[in-house]
């Protein structure tokens, strides 16, 4: 078996991630390596922390990436605060709520779940009532469920958790960088973001932030005795049990990201370059303007999809602005449509998980993929593929409705979006 | 706080990692994103598995990267086979042996250690005797200790472990791609490599391989019940306890890397591009030729260092060919020398850990950093910096001795090395 030079096809990626990456980010990644303790590199680490604080809208001291994919960030936060037998309440409204429950159970938590129908979210009062009943140490919840395209309002839940001294951990993987995630204003204690979605940086890093309430629990865990004193010396006395994972131990990670710079892993150089450039682009665009852009393209996409004669899945009032779920028309092989979109048009959209597999398509409008030409290209291609599959659609209507949204917006904004 | 465009200084990196990366690898990383289930991407995943088998010199079915830095690979392998109370024997001869012990203890193993003086390694018979005494389920050992520059012979230990049905897990982070790591021939059951050293790919991935003996233990662990059936359905009955980590659960990871392609994480797209290109370059050079190249440059470096009047740390018979440890002359501030090398010459070398901190410098000859011009540049720069620090050296001798090694080699090989 011999291996050819590296070559890949160019795709239009309209899934809920991984999505396309700005060429400036790709270029940053191709910069030469720096040593992990090179002052030029630790300066980048510090800049990324400050940029993440701005992205998360927080004054938390700790905001840094975990070197792994999004679920690495989720596991790091949860495993650093969960001790055997801790009560964790998890409201589940889609596939990724199950992941939170799975991770908590693995680390020995006593997991309580409430579930609601896929395609909807919880009334905050329902969650609050359950907190009153269960009295958990931690509530863990997904902000944007890419599996169902729904978004859970968090502020009321956050306020109540703070009042009750419950830690609120939020999976904001699908929302960070694409719509509001107001960590401090919503009283979120620990939050995990994803890079490969609305931040539009390749998969492989998970930015997290957590406040002093979380840090207090982390530092109360028993310190690891073994090892060399210079690497592992810790001054704070401990009461809890040891954090099981070494790789995800936030007490060691913050000593590496903090001024002590105690050696832990070797920070993923090129991925950090990518994250820095991705965050610079986001903050340069401005968070508010960026969220408006995401909503504009979502509006154009939804207008086009509905004008074409297709229907959306889920409660529109609870719709995630970065993912649009479309019901697959009766009798249509959803996978055959996806394959034709990919092979003939080079456009990727997603299927879904579990009970929704084969029932809906999921279309992402995230980060750098969230562009006018991508929306219009997808609508025209999807129509052609559906007609090829003998689906009755309103020919030409989809792209016209989307165009109207853009033209109207141009008049208002005089903007080149 | 505003953030400037991305810019970094160009360094000559002569540490034990992260080291310089071939421009072709940097270029591959700047290729556009593919979706994780795009056939063009899963083809790359399969190619990388085959390339890793060749690199590890194994016919193991499983050889794939963990999405995280090297210690993520170590933790993934260990936590997937260690159950509460399992006996693990760890022969420690430097800093990274302690890391193995720390990880095993965190996961509830009963850890037995033997230690030898830093700068030396174990006589295999010593390890074998200890195995007879302890009767562990697992022996975990470092192949190349970057902290001391020593390399542990493994074949005898491997043979005995196989005979006794003990699992041998090896941290080959510092050796893979730079010197022989013969997984099958040496009877290694599970092996972890690092990308940021002799493979010369940025930090952020940890290639691992394991055989059916390890897989059997992994599959005997209790399957996670929670989650959606289509994602988590498993057919093999289980006897052991659940693997604690979700992110590092090899049973789920191999179902993602294998033909079932069950969704786990979102594979780190650009890092995988980098790994594929890095491996293609390595296999194109040829493993044997590559190892010879590493030894040549090590020889030139050592000749230069000694001719300059400096001495090496550790037992030369047990020297790691990819790391050279140099005793810091009495009365010299090692950190001041390192700083001047970096700031004036743009060259980075490393200090060491624990008892050796301030006593030795560590110079890497790894992967793409392991080039003639880097060795010669370092020798001349180091001499200049030492003279500046009033250290008595044999002026001009270091670079002359290194040159002799290269010229002689050119005559033999007629090669442009």
Automatic annotation (TrEMBL), chains A, B:
Q: What is the lineage of its organism?
A: Bacteria, Bacillati, Bacillota, Bacilli, Bacillales
The cofactors named for this UniProt entry are: pyridoxal 5'-phosphate
Report the leader peptide range: none
Check the record and name the InterPro entries matching this protein: Aminotrans_V_dom (IPR000192), PyrdxlP-dep_Trfase (IPR015424), PyrdxlP-dep_Trfase_major (IPR015421), PyrdxlP-dep_Trfase_small (IPR015422), SP_NH2Trfase/AEP_transaminase (IPR024169)
Residue positions, PTM N6-(pyridoxal phosphate)lysine: 197
Statement: the UniProt record of this protein carries the keyword Transferase: yes
A GO BP term, please? glycine biosynthetic process, by transamination of glyoxylate
Spell out the protein name for this chain.
(S)-ureidoglycine-glyoxylate aminotransferase
Lineage, top-rank taxon, reads Bacteria
UniProt: substrate binding residues: 362
Q: What is its EC number?
A: 2.6.1.-
Q: Which residues form the Aminotransferase class V domain?
A: 40-351
Q: Which UniProt keywords apply?
A: Aminotransferase, Pyridoxal phosphate, Transferase
Query: What is this enzyme's class at the first EC digit?
Result: transferase
For this chain, the family text in UniProt reads: Belongs to the class-V pyridoxal-phosphate-dependent aminotransferase family.
Q: Which GO terms describe its molecular function?
A: alanine-glyoxylate transaminase activity; L-serine-pyruvate transaminase activity
